[in-house]
Amino acid sequence: MKRRSLLQGGLAALLAAPLLRSRTARADGTARRLLVFFTPNGTVHDVWRPSGSGSTYALDSDILYPLAGLEDDLLVLDGMDFTDATNHEGGMVAMLTAGGGTSVDQRIADHIGSATPYSSLELGVQTSAWGGNTQTRMSYRDGGFMTPDDDPQSVHKRLFGDLGDADLLERRQAVLGLLGEELSALHGKVESPEQGRLALHADALADVEKGLSGGSCDSIVAPESFNASSNDAFPDIARQQLDLAVQALKCGLTNVASVQLSHTVSPMVMTWLGETSGHHTLSHASDDGGVASFAACGAWFAEQFAYLIAQLKAADLFDDTVVLWATEMGDARAHVCTDVPWILTSGGVFDTGRYLSLDGEPHDRVLTSLCQAFGLSDTDFAGHGNGALEELR
Predict the structure, then answer these.
(1) Contact status, residue 92 vs residue 340, Cβ threshold 8 Å
(2) What is the per-residue DSSP string for 76-130?
(3) pLDDT tens-digit series, residues 132-142
(4) Largest distance between two CA atoms of the chain
(5) Rounded to the nearest 5°, which phi and psi values hold at 37?
(6) Residue 145: half-sphere exposure toward Cβ, Cα within 13 Å
(7) DSSP H helices in the chain
(8) What is the per-residue pLDDT across 92-146, written as a single tens digit (0 to 9) for each?
């Protein structure tokens, strides 16, 4: 292509697309990034629920105690009911879709992900031993599921495999430099409103160029090799996937990521905690010993969530990233998708530091609220006739 055609094409794409990593995102009251963290098989409310309520609460339960001290950072939601969903499989499908064909992460990715190398990034740990189906998938686009990558080495190669390619880096930087020159030249030829928009695109280009030139992306270390299907490797692979998700967000490779720890009816055994029964089996325990073991597994999940928050803070991403810790059921012993607990972080848009009981509100209202947090105009997620939950903000 001729240089002029290349530049005009690049500019047209920039001007037609949402702003790349817009620096005004916080100023207009919207979040910049979304990270979904999933753990399976619901909960046992008696060992999950914090003490207190509203802004006077403590994360001191048998499951949530690893999050103690983070009360101000979190919006803890209790008592959601999934719409038209029951049992494990129904909950897994409805969790992020509310019965629609596209999950909330993909809806948001369509809005904020078109100008990043990956509109969304799906990572998992042992999600595919049973294949791709409605028990093992949580993200959907137009009725088709999005398959998580369960292998950290595969993820690393896909995301960062060309970092050592000096020629490729030079070509990318050259294209960005030419686009920057064209933006500068165009700036003086347009009226004031368009000048502001061009300035934002120039800022976005600078962000992309900074990411290409190294900065936060110049010291990526390949993950240690583990058998991705090995039960005992689960904790190591989980940490690697969490690290890769945070690094991808930091490097501007995506604005929407998810880390799915196994799937509903997960047979994973937390041998590293001394457990000998599968997680799904423990989720149906009613005796004191079985419930205590299930709570210990839940506390391990909470530790991973706390680690994720710490990594986001260390990367200076926490303040404008919405993190959703989602599960697909309420009390798994009853096979119900009512009284479901989720946890959110602020992303600069939600009013955290609270423990709220939603008293049976349909969870599509939370999904609508998530969409609006990212600047979408959605007022009714998946067509159930319910609006956003204003009390979240």
Answers:
(1) no
(2) EEEEEB-TT--HHHHHHHHHHHTTSSS-HHHHHHHHH-TTSS-S-EEEEES--TT
(3) 999 999 999 99
(4) 74
(5) -120, 120
(6) 17
(7) 3-16, 45-48, 87-97, 104-112, 152-160, 166-187, 192-212, 234-250, 279-283, 288-314, 364-373
(8) 999 999 999 999 999 999 999 988 999 999 999 999 999 999 999 999 999 999 9
Would you give the distance in Å from CA 340 to the centre of its chain? 18
């209202």: which residue's tokens? 365
3-state secondary structure of 68: coil
User: Which residues, including other chains, have CB under 8 Å from residue 125's CB and lie 6 or more apart?
Assistant: 150, 234, 237, 238, 241, 259, 260, 261, 262
Report whether pLDDT(26) > 60: no
Which of 150-154, 214-218, 231-235, 279-283 has the least mean pLDDT?
214-218
8 Å CB contact between 32 and 318: no
Q: How many residues would you count in the chain?
A: 393
**Cα separation, 153 vs 244, whole angstroms:** 10
Are the C-beta atoms of residues 57 and 355 closer than 8 Å to each other? yes
Confidence of residue 235 (pLDDT cuts 50, 70, 90): very high
Query: What is the Cα–Cα distance from 377 to 111, expressed in whole angstroms?
Result: 11
Q: Domains for the chain: give ranges and CATH numbers.
A: 32-162+228-392 (3.40.720.10)
Q: What are phi and psi for residue 278, nearest 5 degrees? A: -65, 155
The 3 state secondary structure assigned to 211-267 is HHCCHHHCCCCCCCCCCCCCHHHHHHHHHHHHHHHHHHHHCCCCCEEEEEECCCCCC
State which amino acid sits at residue 55.
S
Give the Cα separation of 93 and 30 in Å (integer): 27
Q: Which two tokens stand for residue 303?
A: 């530790």
Q: pLDDT, tens digit, for every residue of 328-382?
A: 999 989 999 999 999 999 999 999 999 999 999 999 999 999 999 999 999 999 9
DSSP 21: T
Cβ burial of 1 (10 Å; 0-12, 13-18, 19+) is: exposed
Q: Which two tokens stand for residue 82?
A: 């999934």
12 has pLDDT over 90: no
User: Nearest-CA neighbor of 88 among 340, 367, 344?
Assistant: 340
* pLDDT bracket for residue 205 (50, 70, 90): low
